[in-house]
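Pinned message: reference record for Glutamate receptor
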Amino acid sequence: MLQIHHHLLLLVFFINFMFIVSAGTLKIGVGVVLDMDSSVGKTSSLCIKMAIDDFYQTHHNYTTKIIPHIHHSESDTLQAASAAIQLLKYDQVIAIIGPHTSSQADFVVDIGNKSKVPILSLATSTSISPIENPYFIRVSHNSSSQAQPIAALIKHFTWREVVFVYEQSDFGRGLLPYLSEALLNIGAHIKYRSVISPSPSHAEISEELNKLKENQARVFVVHLSPKSASLFFKKANETGMMQKGYVWIITDVLTSLLHTLDISSMQGVVGVKPYIPKSIKLNNFEKRWRRRFHTENPNLEMERIELDVFGIWSYDATYALAMALERVGSDIAPTFHRKNNPVTDLDAIGTSKLGPRLLSEIGKTRLNGLSGDFSVVDGQLQPLDYQIVSVIEKEERFVGLWTWHHGISENLRDIKWPGNSNSIPQGLRVGYPSNGVFPQFISNSKDNNTNEDKPTGFCVEVFEAVMEALQPQAPPYGYNHYTIDDGHTSRSYDDLVYQIFLKKFDMVIGDVTIRANRSNYVDFTLPYTESGVSMIVPIKVDDRKGIWIFLKPLEKGLWLTSFAFFIYTGVVVWILEHRVNKEFRGRPYKQVGMIFWFSFSTLVFAHKEKTISNLSRFVVIVWIFVVIVLQSSYTAGLTSMLTVQQLQPDFTDIHDLLAQGDYVGYKDGSFVGRMLLDMGFNINNLKKYTSLEDYHEALSKGSKNGGVSAIFEELPYVNAFMAKYCTKYIKVGPTYKTAGFGFAFPLGSPLVPLVSRAILEVREKKLSKIWDIYFKPEKECTPKNETAVTPDRLSLDSFIGLFLIAGISSTSALMISILKFLYENRGILASEDSICQKMYAMARTFDQENDQSSYKGSKKTIDALGTTDDDDLSVIEDDITSNAPSPESIINHEAPDIVETTIER
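Predicted structure (tokens):
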């Protein structure tokens, strides 16, 4: 009976086919499965019909024509599958357009694969893959493509954590892995995933929103169906989560269908959707579409109806299908291969002969449609760029573009955020102690313009400098104060840091020390201050003088340099005077002693030896000047050291304090108190203070008068205290290592490495300037006045110029003398003897006395006798010089005695 029924159907179809062909145009059925109760279904079905009309009005000579068979899926998955089977079984359609929901498309695509009929679906879900389903053609955007523009938007506003709200379905889950990856690539992440059922109740949504509110979440990405989204945002508005400080980003499906939602509860929401370029063709079509839609649906309010992107894609897909069908040609009838003994309806349908060829032709189709360039590659429509819009009052407003080639627009238009706020919602909730112990580091104040709480102080300046160094990656932030101890509650800095773990703050700044116990529930950045705990004690006067104090005016380098120049000057003078001055001659030990004696006797100007050579006199004059300067400087320095009071600390070791049982102080609320207990101090001997002035007062009184003998404090506080009271107190003892001040973040926060790198940059370039703003040393603490308390020792740097002059003078005189000696004895150098013989001869010549005094005496005697005849004078001079040994005799080891020629009166 079943076979007879099938044969009758084939006969009817064959008769109809022959009638259509005889008319000259092959009319081929195309199925359309849409939810006609939805806005997308109504819009798309009309666009499909208008596409067919427009195409064949333009291509009236084509031999094929599409006949649409529209079936209503009734928002039901099984109904959609049943409609597809009916279209294939009874209408013999060669392709099916739709459905647009992922759940319905999943069933219909499976039918298309088995029957080899192309399914042109508007479903965006990534759960349906053209690779796994060869007859599935996605004529809309793949949902995964929107992950990039959403991540770019989050990066633009430097948010680091988002909450992903999605539907518990293939449609909702499909976007999750792609969005997670895109966020990780920009240094952000999904902090929490909120799952909503496909048909949620009011109670379910309210419960989930309360969880999100308690979780202190601020930035949300919502990926729901339009029906669920309407209820979700209505409840979010009632919960108070559509106020200032919140960020809501919706995905492309919701953004494209905003006109179908009640947007009164969505003010300030930002969304992304495919960008359809404006064109005359699109504008004219939209006008025609609105007129025809109103004609076919006169009872619908046109204010809630708009031509959406799904309708535009349906139009272009139908256009492309008509073009592909014409290329297939009219010579192939839309027939199916059937099994002989069909068991199911699918077996009865069989497989399409036309399907594989039509699928290939659709993939080759390229056209400039209403959406722009329309082409299908690997079973998917090539993605368009995205536009960013925001919901303002009763409409959506264009904000900017995101393109595949250039990313997000550099200059986005101003956005009205939830709560009608113009300012970017707070990215980081920055906690700080509102009543810090030392206001110089951090304190709370009121902004004169906004009357809002605002922190000030050194730590705040450093934090803002770090945020500036992070640009353009710096996240937006807002300050939130936290009271440490107001007299009613006893809170510590541990409690402040713990607020991050409780999700009250996103980070904490201030004079917060990096501690091991705190790192169990927060992550710290690198420190931005010096690390360690040190001891401050009062200064006492020490009048005791050391036995070696006479060595202290000069530094070691200056002592050694002075001694070297004394020796060098003595050697130079000896060389210059040795041949002409009998006082610089004699046995070797006598000559060595003369070198030291002459040089060092200049200190007290006690040298009795007269210098004959003009060069040596020049050297001595310069050297005496150097000695005078050194002597006066040494005397002044020693006098200062002997007369100025020497200041010493009261205590230098912690053991002295422990042994005497003295009181010590520390900052109230600091971990230093626990550290002192661990060192062995009695808890009764510990005193808490709350300001630098309190420290000064306590140290001034001393342990015996109600004060303390020492203050233990972290180095930043110690440096701040010493900048103000350096003349009265001193830092002594070892520095007990700690990690310094740092910024606290939640465990695993991606901001920690970024902020740490920025801290290094600030420490290198700006930190010292910021420190000087808040802790500039008092006048008495300047280096100039510190020298009055502890006189500086004289260093070599102060006398380099003086020694340079002395060295050049002595060396120049020595070189002139040597060159003159070599010139006078050039005969020895010109001889043919060996180098050793020449050197020996020169040494013997240098060691011989050049009796300048005898020569001068002869001259005076001649003048006294009145002998002025030049010939007689020359005879006498020849007689004097004739007795000098010749160079040849010295070389030949002949050394006749030098005859002293004198002329007696």
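Pinned by admin. Summary line: Residues 614-643 form the longest helix (30 residues).
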